[in-house]
Design brief:
single chain, mainly beta, two-stranded antiparallel sheet, 5 strands, 10% helix, elongated
Length: 70
């Protein structure tokens, strides 16, 4: 594990592309979802609009809780 490690805090494998904006814990979105810390809901868009993805995050490391959409 290096200084700029992207190892997933859940499974330990490399390539974690997400991280907690509070404490910096790196994770795979799939691993966080499987543990119940990340919930994702996608709402379909209409004919002229794209879909919206909502998320709820609860960091097991620092306790940060957040909601948002993208």
């Amino acid at each position: 594990m290096g200084l700029f490690s992207t190892d997933c805090a859940y499974c330990g494998d490399s390539g974690a592309s997400e991280n907690c904006s509070q404490c910096g814990m790196d994770f795979h979105a799939e691993c966080a979802q499987q543990r119940g810390d990340l919930q994702i809901k996608e709402e379909g868009g209409g004919l002229l609009s794209s879909s919206t993805t909502h998320y709820r995050w609860a960091c097991p490391n620092c306790g940060r809780r957040s909601n948002g959409s993208f």
